[in-house]
Design a protein that fits this description.
It is a single chain. The chain has 194 residues and is mostly beta strands. 0% of the residues lie in helices and 52% in strands. The strands form 3 sheets. The protein has an 8-stranded antiparallel β-barrel. The N and C termini lie far apart (97 Å).
Amino acid sequence: MATRSAPVIIASVIATVSIGTAVVVATTTPGSAAVPRAAAALPHDDATASPTPVPTVTVTVTPTPTFTATPKPTPKPTLHLTSTIRIRSTNVDVVNLGHGKQIVTAALRRGGRDAGRGVSTCTPGGATFSCKSAYALSGGVLIFRDTVNFSQGKVTGTVTGGSGKYAGAHGTVRGAESSHGGVHITIVYYSNNT
């Protein structure tokens, strides 16, 4: 018994495939695998028999497009250089405006020298005062919101802006009563003008 083989075109390459008495023929496009779709039995006669045509099925495989995701770039962190002001408020004057509001003014001292003036508008609320404050210092005015807690003798707040070299300033305010009178205040801030 003779086995016949037939050419197979795979990505423009001709090959002969014989599998027992069956021949598989497939055509593919470049970059894809051959997908056999039909098989035909070859005749089982002797080698002198005339060739019998083998039916052929052509299969076209279209490759699936591949998509690549591009990751978003990670934003670069913004570097802020901070400045620290350590100051003491002294000679505090309080003016009652009525309706629970007060204006508080103070002289500001740094290293034993005059450093400017501070003005706050405060609203009492039990043992605490909520204030909007402005400190006129060398180079501009620093503005912040703060809370004065009289039972703890502490001040905490947030820098919200300013003018001059303090324009666009942000930061924190911390303070505590001084044993020498007044309040020691530390302001840590950053500004585009610093």
